[in-house]
Structure to design on (326 residues):
């Protein structure tokens, strides 16, 4: 698990710097200050309350409780703007909201996590056997580290030429993939993943995941103010598309000394995979509504409509006569 944690943090470092190199100041839309409050209220107030109620209802093992709390306070990253682009949402707004979420996470991720765990301990009276020391300081340092890495990438973008940034970004991307795959390889090669991946109580294990995923997606559609469709899509995606890499890093580094680390990593991994696959129909539905197709545009139909529009323009300009048409 030590090698897994080391490879994970190196891979995350590479991808976060790469992410920072893709950010341009002129692409960041900050004209909607109320929407930052909207994302904050969902990620650090409403979603934690929902998760807390799910935990009280299911009463899962304490390691799963901690994993669920980590997932609910994980911030969004600039990668959410990629999903926003695929559904024709407001990409600059999604980018700005993601950066705002990351900035807030430095304080509120460890703070809300600690509040959730303490509240759960008081209500359930978990006892000494299930207590794990709260990693407030390590979470704070990790979230600060994440924000600094993106800032480094942003500065590289400002100071260096476009050709260097593109070449450097390719190396960072390949390095991140290599280290992430290596980390997963060491995790799956260890004995710690077999039992957690095959839960003895699948109803609690998977049921809690699905409730978290779809309750967050549902409530994200109720913003604090009236929004245009593109802006609303950006808010929903930033609110719900949390970074699985950051969730894994928080888990691995915050609970590195815990004997139950393997179980917590397993839950975060499975949750991330189920979230992506279970919400795919929603993303495809948005693409159909906003772009008119699920996967890709029909080129033949598009070309035909383009030709028809060109003929219409020529006809309106008077360049097409009855002789030309015949």
């Amino acid at each position: 698990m030590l090698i897994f944690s080391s490879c994970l943090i190196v891979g995350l470092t590479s991808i976060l710097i790469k992410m920072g190199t893709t950010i341009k100041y002129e692409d960041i839309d900050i004209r909607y200050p109320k929407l930052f409050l909207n994302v904050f209220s969902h990620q650090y107030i409403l979603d934690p309350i929902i998760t807390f109620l799910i935990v009280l209802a299911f009463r899962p093992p304490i390691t799963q409780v901690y994993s669920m709390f980590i997932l609910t306070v994980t911030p969004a990253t600039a990668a959410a703007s990629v999903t926003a682009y695929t559904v024709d949402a407001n990409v600059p707004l999604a980018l700005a909201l993601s950066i705002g979420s990351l900035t807030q996470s430095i304080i509120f991720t460890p703070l809300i996590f600690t509040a959730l765990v303490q509240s759960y301990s008081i209500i359930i009276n978990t006892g000494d056997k299930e207590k794990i020391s709260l990693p407030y300081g390590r979470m704070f340092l990790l979230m600060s580290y994440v924000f600094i890495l993106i800032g480094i990438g942003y500065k590289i973008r400002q100071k260096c030429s476009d050709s260097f940034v593109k070449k450097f970004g390719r190396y960072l991307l390949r390095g991140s993939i290599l280290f992430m795959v290596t980390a997963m390889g060491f995790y799956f090669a260890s004995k710690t993943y077999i039992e957690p991946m095959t839960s003895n109580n699948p109803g609690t294990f998977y049921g809690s995941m699905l409730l978290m995923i779809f309750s967050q997606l549902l409530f994200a559609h109720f913003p604090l103010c009236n929004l245009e469709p593109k802006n609303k899509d950006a808010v929903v995606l930033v609110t719900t598309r949390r970074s699985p890499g950051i969730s894994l890093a928080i888990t691995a580094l915050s609970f590195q000394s815990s004997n139950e680390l393997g179980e917590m990593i397993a839950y975060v991994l499975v949750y991330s995979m189920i979230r992506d696959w279970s919400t795919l129909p929603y993303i495809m539905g948005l693409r159909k509504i906003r772009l008119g197709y699920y996967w890709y545009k029909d080129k033949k139909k598009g070309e035909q409509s383009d030709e028809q529009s060109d003929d219409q323009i020529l006809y309106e300009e008077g360049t097409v006569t009855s002789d030309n048409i015949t």
Observations:
- Confidence is low (pLDDT under 50) at residues 311-326.
- DSSP finds 15 helices and no strands in the chain.
